[in-house]
């Protein structure tokens, strides 16, 4: 067999199977661990948990489409793939790109919902709401463009019809995806360092959010690899790495998004001295807060901190600390100890007592 024949029959199948399977399993284990952490805390599932579960469904859908594309020639050169398989491959690629468009925004929305639960700074929440609106609107627009990329829609896989430039569309989506990734992952770090927490814990939490940059790196690698091959004739071979990096990106995003909610499990893994160094052994905030920007732990979401809740009303010099969870309306949903004190200190000049003459 000549070198040309050997290169034509080259198959990336084993490499694709190993990498894609590894990352989809990691993403699945991360979501399971997140739900286990909620169960260990006896906490109900919240909106961000359901959002990350939906993202995992999208991730598994991408993996399923990868498996289907693999049976129709993905990873092999087009020269050795039947035209009927190429036709089915392009049709499956159409659905793959739509699911991929939806997956990263779903992960971002899960993270933003988590921020909404743990931060109460009005300025920060405004940023969270704005980013949520931007991500949602961007996802809706890009999904619409992905579905109606061609007129008729079947033109995407038949090649008959009028289509938007697929390369420019994919690159434009990827650039916005990376920019919003960076924004969403880095936006809580300045707030983190204003919290009344031990320095070791601040560093640990910061590192957890910085790990989200691996998601950004995967998206960047996917963008660069796509720019080199989009529009090529040998789609079954050249697009293989794009499939792989799409699954890697979504899976890494899911894993990194689940890490901040897995304190109970991380504490068990990093036990003893290492847990104390990383700040997992004691997550109770300093009860003497001096910041004007209050931070209140959600009553139903305490994976990051302990059940203590501290409010800082520095303008009125009031203290309000409870040791049980509270509902949004202020009522307690479980019996416990409530300590509320209001202290007013007034300093006055003390005059010496007047002694009568003997």
From TrEMBL:
Residue spans crossing the bilayer: 14-37, 49-73, 93-114, 126-148, 168-191, 203-223, 243-266
Keywords assigned: Membrane, Transmembrane, Transmembrane helix
Record region (Disordered): 306-338
Membrane topology listed for this record: Multi-pass membrane protein
A cellular component term, taken from the record's GO annotations: membrane
Residue ranges of domain Rhodopsin in the record: 33-267
Signal peptide: none
Xref: InterPro entries: Rhodopsin_dom_fungi, SAT4-like
Protein's cellular compartments: Membrane
Biased composition (Basic and acidic residues): 309-318
Pfam families named in the record: Fung_rhodopsin
Family stated for the protein in its record: Belongs to the SAT4 family.
Name of the protein described by the UniProt record: Rhodopsin domain-containing protein
Organism: Aspergillus avenaceus
């Amino acid at each position: 067999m000549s070198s040309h024949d050997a290169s034509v029959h080259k198959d990336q199948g084993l490499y694709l199977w190993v990498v894609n399977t590894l990352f989809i399993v990691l993403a699945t284990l991360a979501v399971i661990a997140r739900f286990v952490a909620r169960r260990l805390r006896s906490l109900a599932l919240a909106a961000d948990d359901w959002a990350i579960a939906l993202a995992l469904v999208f991730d598994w859908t991408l993996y399923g489409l990868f498996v289907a594309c693999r049976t129709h020639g993905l990873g092999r050169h087009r020269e050795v793939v039947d035209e009927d398989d190429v036709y089915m491959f392009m049709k499956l690629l159409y659905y793959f790109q739509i699911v991929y468009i939806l997956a990263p925004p779903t992960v971002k929305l899960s993270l933003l919902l988590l921020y909404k639960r743990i931060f109460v700074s009005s300025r920060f929440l405004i940023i969270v709401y704005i980013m949520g609106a931007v991500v949602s609107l961007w996802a809706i627009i890009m999904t619409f463009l992905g579905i109606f990329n061609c007129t008729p829609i079947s033109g995407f896989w038949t090649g008959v019809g009028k289509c938007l430039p697929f390369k420019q569309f994919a690159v434009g989506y990827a650039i916005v995806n990376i920019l919003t990734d960076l924004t969403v992952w880095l936006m809580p770090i300045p707030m983190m360092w204003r919290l009344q927490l031990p320095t070791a814990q601040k560093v640990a939490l910061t590192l957890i959010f910085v790990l989200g940059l691996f998601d950004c790196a995967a998206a960047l690698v996917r963008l660069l690899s796509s720019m080199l091959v989009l529009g090529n004739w040998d789609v079954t071979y050249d697009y293989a790495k794009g499939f792989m990096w799409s699954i890697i990106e979504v899976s890494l995003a899911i894993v990194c998004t689940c890490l901040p909610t897995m304190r109970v499990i991380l504490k068990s893994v990093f036990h003893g001295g290492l847990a104390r160094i990383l700040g997992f052994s004691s997550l109770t905030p300093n009860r003497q807060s001096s910041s004007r920007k209050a931070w209140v732990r959600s009553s139903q979401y305490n994976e990051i901190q302990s059940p203590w809740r501290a409010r800082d009303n520095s303008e009125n010099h009031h203290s309000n600390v409870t040791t049980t969870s509270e509902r949004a309306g202020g009522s307690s949903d479980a019996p416990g100890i409530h300590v509320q004190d209001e202290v007013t200190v007034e300093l006055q000049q003390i005059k010496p007592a007047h002694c009568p003459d003997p």
